[in-house]
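Q: For a teaching handout, I want to show students what a protein-ligand complex looks like in token form. Below are the inputs, and the small molecule is flavin-adenine dinucleotide. Please produce the holo structure.
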Amino acid sequence: MAIRRRQSDYGGIVFKRPSTVLWPTTVEELARTLQSLHARGERVTVRNTAHSTNGQTLTDGPQINVGNIRHVTFDPVAGVVTAGVGASWDAVLKAIDFPRRCLPLFPNNPGQRIHIGGTASVGGVGFYGSRVGGFWNHVRSLKLVTMSGEIVECSPTVEPELFRFSLGGFGRIGVIAEITVGVLPSKPNVLPIILVYFDPDRHQRDFDKAMLDPRFNGVVAQEEHEGLEFNVTNAVGKPFRTIMVLCEVDAGENTDELVKQVRADYGEDLSLYLKGGPKIEGLDLAFEPRVFPKRYLVYFTPREYPLLDGLWNWLRSWMGLRWLLGRKPTVCRPWSDCVVTRAQYPQFMAGMREIIKKLDVGRYLEKSTVLHGLMNIDSTVTFVIKRQSQDPSQFFPLVLDLPNEPQHSLGVAIMPDVPRSELERGLRICRELTDLVYSCEGRRYLYGTHALTREQVEKHYGRSCLNQWQKLKDQNDPKHLLNIGVIEHVDA
Ligand SMILES: Cc1cc2nc3c(=O)[nH]c(=O)nc-3n(C[C@H](O)[C@H](O)[C@H](O)COP(=O)(O)OP(=O)(O)OC[C@H]3O[C@@H](n4cnc5c(N)ncnc54)[C@H](O)[C@@H]3O)c2cc1C
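A: Here is the structure, written as tokens, with flavin-adenine dinucleotide included.
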């Protein structure tokens, strides 16, 4: 089907109009589509849910939207789920009967609507990464379709090089058409304890300790920045930081002893607990421990809900008015997720705080809405990515594990939503954060907004990795037609 509407992505910064949009529905149809574009020598760009923010899915030429390849089959005996790359995380979770079972790692996005193949193509981090690492560690095998239309089965033992360079590879050497991922039994509830600190050193010490604590299924740190509505740091006169630790619990399990032990072992100033529910959008807090259905954690998305926006959303979704009243995005999302080693984390965080303060962007950062939406806290969030193996043959060179970090890489999500009138300021944050993270020997999560220099691309991947990647590109896309320019400088 030909569609020639102007497109953007979640960033709302770049706009392009594809000449054609092709929607294959099966792996074989995708192979035939690529083969015919290859025969005609036409460049093509792949689009999935378009939750990237740097225009990676946008083109003026032909585009393949893989969002209709969305079959899902669950094999309970083998403990794996096989999904077409257009299947949403929500569809995959339903197929495995979540919350009885779950994937070891799950991302957080609105309604789990992002497609699983998009996550695999860029990386995949989440709350449970402190224990289970990145999503790439749990992909058992995949079907890669090359530009000439060949369907290649890849796994750690079959075509291992293609396998390792497909995950996080932004579709440069082929299109991931189907993936098979491990599934685990899961408990229905979690106990999310939020440890609040006003002392930065104690916070850092306890964050280090929590990452290694076997009681926790997940560990995430959060830090408040100066925002418009309310600033705890100013009110208390000391920095406000948290560590959220997540423990899975069974229905009816008594959590009193666990809470007592955690509070005895950690030096927080205040303990809070998450509460949520179908009617509570976002995050809410309780002073008493309470069982929190894992479903709320998996489907939770931080968002701000001012009354007028809520009314507007309701009106737009009512009786199909969404389409009629659909507006051009007025918000731009120059998002930067930056990954650094444990050793470089304090230096990166200090530099990041300076940039946020200097450019006065605290008020635009991701909001955590608490106390029934009465308060929005502007924050950055640190995800932990535990290295799963020290064996170099099991290292995924294009994802978010850092080669120089043997234990825990730390990913900091800095997600400002700026009005279009402030776009230049937003892009400046991205540039300054980019310079900072590469000066700290880290790397950016490249789904976000960036304009890397050639030197930064070299630092990101390393020369030998780039050479190996290029060799695979030459072999599998000899005419250089697929996703050209999606990562800057590598195709030049
Ligand atoms: C609100 C929000 C929440 C998020 N939360 C998380 C999170 O918790 N954890 C996390 O890790 N990330 C998160 N992300 C980042 C997200 O994973 C990326 O934006 C990812 O790109 C989303 O997949 P997609 O389907 O939207 O990919 P797209 O944006 O459509 O594509 C991204 C890139 O991958 C390529 N591509 C897409 N599909 C394929 C394929 N099948 N084969 C080959 N190449 C392909 C595209 O050409 C493009 O270059 C979040 C993003 C947003 C906006």
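A: Two things your students might notice: Residues 276 and 296 are 6 Å apart (CA to CA). The longest helix spans residues 423-439.
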